[in-house]
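Re: the multi-chain job from yesterday

Posting the exact lines I submitted so nobody has to dig through the queue logs.
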Amino acid sequence: MITLWIQGLLRRRFGSLAATAAGVAIAVAMIASLGSFIASAQSSMTARAASGVAVDWQVQVAPNADPGAVATKTRAASGVTKALPVGFAHSTGLSATSNGTSQTTGPAIILGLPTGYAAAFPGEIRFLSGTHNGVLIAQQTAANLHVMPGDSVTIGLEGVTPIAVTVAGVIDLPQANSLFQTVGAPAQSQPLAPPDNVLLVPSGTYGEISSALTVAHPELVSIQIHAAHSHALAADPAVSYVDITSAAHNLEATLAGSGQVGDNLGAALGAARGDSGYATVLFLFLGLPGAVLAGLLTVAVATSGRDRRRREQALLRTRGASARLVGRLVASEALIVGTIGGAVGLAVAALVGAISFGTVGFGQSPVSATIWPLSAFLIGLGIAVGAVVIPAIRDFRTVIVSQARAQLSRDHTPWWARIWLDLILLAVSAAVFSITTQDGYSLVLAPEGVASIQVNYWAFFGPALFWVGAGLLIWRIYRSVLRRRQGTVARLIRPITGSLSHTSSHMMSRTSPVLARGAVMFALALTFAISTSVFNSTYQHQAEVDARLTNGADIAITEPPGSHTPVSAGTTIQKVPGVGAVEPLQHRYAYVGSDLQDLFGVRASSITKATLLQDAYFQGGTAEQLMAKLAAQPDAILVSSETVKDFQLHPGDLIRLRLQNATTQSLVTVPFHYVGVANEFPTAPKDSFFVANATYISSQTGDSSVSSFLVDTGGRGTDAVANSLRHGLGTSATVTSIGAARSSVGSSLTSVDLGGLTRVELTFALLIAAASGGLLFVLGQSERKRTFAIATVLGARRRQLRALVLAEAAVVAIGGTIAGVVLGAVLSHMLASVLTGVFDPPPAALTVPWSYLIVAGVIAIVAIVAGAIWSARTAHRPAIETIREL
Amino acid sequence: MSTPTPTPLHLADARPATDVVVRCADIAHTFGSGPTAVVAVTQVTCEVRRDSRLAIMGPSGSGKSTLIHLMAGLESVTSGTISWPAFGGTPGGSPGTVGVVFQGPSLIPSLDALGNVALPLIIQGVSDAEAERRAAEALEALGLGWLSARLPDELSGGQAQRIAVARVLAAGPRLILADEPTGQLDRETGSHVIDVLIEAADRLGAGLVITTHDPEVAGKLSERWLMQDGELRATPHHDSEGDRP
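And the result, structure tokens for all chains:
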């Protein structure tokens, strides 16, 4: 019986079944594509987290343990590819004499590095000038001591004769935070900042130092074994985190107290694991409305076959079919639709994955590869059951078919409208939104220097409730306008319907629930398209801004420390083909009390020619206003909000900084006046820094040398221009292009490329918008055919009938578009506020992809109009057949 | 009541052309083609005048409805000629000249009774206010004014048919065609609907053609024709005025 039934359905109702299955397929494809994206994103997060770690494990050798044995055991640990001993010695201070003046620093750390360390751990040391072998001095320490390669530095040691060494090169330690961590200490006990003064010495020199110190003050020397672990990790950060931390614990157990593991790789993967969990929720949250809309679309399609199903049910019942049998037959229809739709959806998702994310699967682990497609398939099946079986069961319990039909024409206000659920949901949404954005959550820097995200999952409830509440509210408003503002609607559609405008508005008032449903679907599809595209574009834009912020401009040319490059060198750079604007940037160190901070000297009137300054970087004025203030007031200075807070500053307050005078090499006090706050600035670090006028700094310190040049290429051929500059400038300066910065900025979450997801979501949004608009006319076709047949008998001409449908299309399109745009704008702002922690830096304004939105809007409206014209044509053509049935 | 004779209908046209609302000359209508073709109407020659009060009787499938559709200009003849001399063209060219009442519900579900009755007038280009005034008049004339605001789903079958008649009345046609208008009504309601139709035709001076199985309905009309196998077999029978109920 069931086979016969299914055969009959496929033969006779193929179109309707195919439409329902297509709705299921869209929902399944949407969810499975999200899964595909998330799996691919997770994989990139793991890779990103691992690649960002310079030294995977720092094994602190216990004071009385044998470093050699610890190194051997570490090398023998599973997955460890390299392990080298590094000595840490505390110096009382470093001193140097240059140009007749002597400088002495505070306490310093002396690192003893074995041969080949830099090659084994390439991310740990960045060479700035001089040679790669011998004694290397950190950039800031070199600045403090005014030394260059070739200069002599004396290492002060507690209770031991100082040792003099010759500087071979200047370096930077990009991962100083993790390098100088206290291994085994909790996060709150970690040093607040890495040491200001660091000297790297070869193992021979270090041996001298440690031998002397071990006798006098053994507590001032220690040894770590730095290990590199294989980065062939599980794709899922959570799995790889567990693997790595287990391996670290295992090593500690093997060491049996002779060493403690500082698990940098585990920390990075732990942060990526958190980000990954957040990313999963975030991207599901952003994409799920699309899947829900596809589900609603399926229900709408399935509902169009409800009358047919009712008739068939009635027939089956009169022929003696039991409720059980009818239930099984209806379930078989749902099963067919769900299975076919689910299979097609998964196939589409695999195709989408291959095209957009470069993967056909839904994850690299067996669990992920199974869970996503299975979940999507089951959800599809659930939609099919919900759309077909549940209404059928409800109908089965309805006493008389005509009774159910009669209800459609009555003034039936849904239960939710009677209790004002829409407004309640919107009020709760607003309350949740207000609370969660007040509390907020933001990107925080972990002690290991890995950006991770603090998550407040409650924040998702605001937009989620807004979706539902706004959808219901549109329905209420739309229905109310159609029912109570018939005169207005008639005037609106008069250009289309002419003398039939009042008749048409009357008809629409009676069919307002159906039209309202179509308009709501259309509006929500547009809302989805707008909010998704705006969020994703803003996300992409901010990632670009972050890259620009990190690099400074399209190209940054960093001069070596102590090079004294004049401003005029910019002229040479300017001549390189492809170079647009060139801006010199001074980078100095300034003392505020005992605190050393970065100071950037700029040409305030022209810096924006070469780099981007967003208003969001500043407080106390826009970027333009604060640059104008700097330009107008030579001693003006922008400080960080942290400094403002620490020193209780008010605009106009005097700030005295101690800067190094180029002639005397001594620190001089330079007065500045605080005019505003800079939280971000191109090339500046994330923590405290100052921005002031370059000319003022030059005049006060006698040093007009440029630290770096920011180069604008207009975004064209940046890499080629960078290569030309490298070729032209030689090895003396470091040339970095924005392309390199793009791949290294932000947390592992912000590093996720949303390009593929954007394309997928936007395609689905467009599909749903077009389908929901066009579907309205397809679904109401049987009723419309009847109306048209009667109108034809009454003398209506084809153009009059077409006008009636087009008027409906206009009302749905106009109403739906207005509602969609308003909701899309509100939701975009809401998402940007709620998810502000995702953006780094926070956006100054939302990025609206106008071209996409205009194309999407036009396609959606064209779909509605095409649906209307098709409806008018097909409804008119066989009018006589309908008439025969009258 | 006269008994139809199985002979084709041939009319001698001695009346002025403008008095004849529809004239069929050897018309035929076939559905489909080839071996599955179904001949619905064949060799029908007849005419309906403005004072005609015709009942077309015949078994189901005899072609009555198709003939009505042909007379209304809703279907085209396969062969022969059909013309509407009183209209100076086809019914499609001058909307509202032919009013049709169907067996089943023929009101537009999304319009109330007043809107349904006013619709043919609005289609003709009459202003909304005027159309509503005339529709209200038509409803009042048939004693249906109290149903003006009701939707078709809120009307009984008899009420819906009478509203359909009011719609015909409001449009002021010169030919009223009713295709088994009492088929779904009880006898009493059906009888009332026929009375209303005859009253409407008289009021408008319009020709009236009603298809029916019911001899009692046919008995209310002055002429009765018989259709069988697509052919019109009855010789027109004219009751005397006294025969009219």
